[in-house]
Amino acid sequence: MNRRFRIGPSLVTLAAILYFFVPLYAAFQFSLQMKRGELSLAAYGSVFQDGVFINALTFSILASAAAILFGALLVVPTAYWVRLRLPKLRPVVEFISLLPLIIPSVVLVFGQIRMFGSSSILPLTTSDWGTNLLLVIGYVVLSLPYMFRAVDNGMAAIDIATLTEAAESLGASRARIVFTIIFPNIRAAVVSGAFLTFSICLGEFAIASLLNRSAFGPYMVQLGQDRAYEPAALAIMSFALTWVLMGLMQAFANMKPGQGLFRLPFQKKSPRP
Amino acid sequence: MSLLTIRSLVKSFGANTVVKDFDLHMQDSEFISLLGPSGCGKTTVLRIVAGFETPSTGSVEIDGQNVTGLRPNQRKIGMMFQSYALFPNLTVAGNVAFGLKVSGVSASETTRRVDEMLAMVGLSGFGARYPYQLSGGQQQRVALARAIAPRPRVLLLDEPLSALDAKIRVALRGEIRAIQRELGITTLFVTHDQEEAMAMSDRVVVMNGGRAEQVGTPDEIYNRPASRFVAQFIGALNMLPATLRDAATGMVETPIGPLSLERSLPQSNGTALTLAFRPESLRLIADGEALPPQNFSGRLMTREFLGAIVRFRAEVAKDLTLGIDCFNRTGETLPQIGHEVRLGIPAQEILVLN
Questions:
Q1: What's the complex ipTM?
Q2: Nearest Cβ partner of A163 from B85, B102, B156?
Q3: Residue A236 within any structural domain of the chain
Q4: How many domains, chain B?
C-alpha cells in the first residue's frame, strides 16, 4: 500500500527537478559550445575579458552595497521604533514597505526624473553623483519589502522591549542600544535582507537603464541582444552567484554568537554546563 | 533622610487608575518587597521608579534628587527582569561590563570589577560563555552581576525568580539577599510569592487595587494584618462568623459555640464580626490531654501530607470547615479522616475583622 502511495509524489518530484534542471543544463551546455565542434569555457572567458562587464559588475556591486547600507540604516531604526513605541502603526509601515511590489519601478524612476530633473529645485540628474544617488535610493525603495520583512521578523524573535529596558537601566542611550544591542542581535536578519537586496539590485534593469547608468542589468540585456553564447554563460554565473548567496544566508541565519560562520559537523559544540 | 522616596504616586492608563496615592520611604540598604496579586499595581510602581513609566501625578526621589522627569538611563539604577534580559550577542563578561563601559569606567577597572562581580555570584571562569550556554539560574546570576556592577543607587528586582524552578529559586533568593546585605544596596523587589517576600525582606508592602494596604515587617504583616485583605492574602486563614455578646470580656457567639477572646473589644454588643485565625493556631487535642479554655469538636474531612506539615480540614458545624496544620513529628500518630477530634485555640491568636 505504502509503495503505491509513494509513486505519485516521486513522479511529481522528478517532474519538478526536470522542469528546473533541464533548461539550466541546456543553457549550460549551450554556453560551452562557443567553439565549433568542442566543449569549452570560451564564452565565460569572453565575458570576463570584456572590460564593460567588469565595469558594469563593479558599479552594480558598489551601488548594491550602498543600497544595503542605506536600507539597513533606514529600516532597522524604523522597525525598532515602530515595534517599541508605535506598535499601532505597524500595519501602516508594513503597507508602505510593500508598495514597491505594487508600483512598477518604471513609475518610480519617472517620478525620480520629474522630481529631480534639470528643471527642478534639486537637479540631481544633472550630475553623475546625483544620478548615482538616485539609483541607490531607487534600489533602497525596491528592496524595502524584503529588507523590512527580514528585519521585522528578526526583531520578532528577540524581546526588544525588555532588552531595551535592561540596557537603559544600565545607562545606555537609545543610539547605543540600537547599534550595540539591537543591530548585532538581528544581524542574521539584516544579512538575509542584504543578500536579497544585493540580488535584486544586481539584476535590476528599468531604473538603471532610464537613469542611463552603466549597471549590470542593462549590460545583461544589451549582451543578450548582441551575442549568442555569452548570455547563456552569464545566466549560469548568475545562478551560481545566487546559490552562493542563499547558502551564505542560511549559514548566517543559523549562526550563534561566538561561533564561526562555517562550523563543520565534526567540530566540537560549545560546552554546556 | 530616606534613600528612595515615593510620594503620592498616581498612575492612570486612560480611565483605568492602576496606582492610587502610593507613598513609600525606603532607608539606605533596606530591602523592601512589593507584594500583591496580579494587577495590583506593584510592577507599575517599580517601572515608575525605573523610569519606564511616567506617573500621572506624584514624585520619585533617589538620594534626595527628584528623578521623576529623568530618563531611565540617567537614574543610576540597577534592574533584574523575570526574563533575565541578558544581551544574547555578548559574553557573560561582556554583559557584566556593559554598564561599566557605558559609564566610562577604564578598561582595566572594568576587567577587575567584572571578575569581582562574577566571583560574587559564583560564576568565576564563566566570563567567555554566551547566555545561551547557561542554565536559567546561571543566567539570572549574570543578570544580578550586571545590575550591581555599576554600583547603582537602587536595585530594582522585577520578579527575577519567577521563571526558575523551585530549588534554584530558594537558593538564589538567599544569594541575592546575602549579596544585597554585603553591598548594602537599597533594593525594591516585586513579587507575587509571599514566601519569597517574607523570607527576603526587611519590610513588605502588601498592595491591593493600586494602594498599599499595609507596610510592615514580615512578622507584623503575618501576625498583625491591618486589613481583611492582608489577613486573607498572606498565608492561609480560617474565618468564623460571630456576634459580639459582651464587649468588655470579649465574649462572642459563633456556630461552634460561645468563645471568649479574653480581651475587651471596641465594638458594641450585638455587632456582627468575623473571627480569623491561622491553621497552625488550631491544635488537635489528644485523648486524655487537658482541654484549653477555647475548645470545640469537629470531624476530619481531608488530610494532605505536605512533608513537614500535615494539613487537615475539619467540619466543625454544618457547612463550616476549618483548616488545621500539624507538624509531622516522627513517632507521633495523627488522626485519620472521619475521626471525631477535639480542637483548641489560644484566645490571643484569634483576630477580629470588621
A1: 0.86
A2: B85
A3: yes
A4: 2
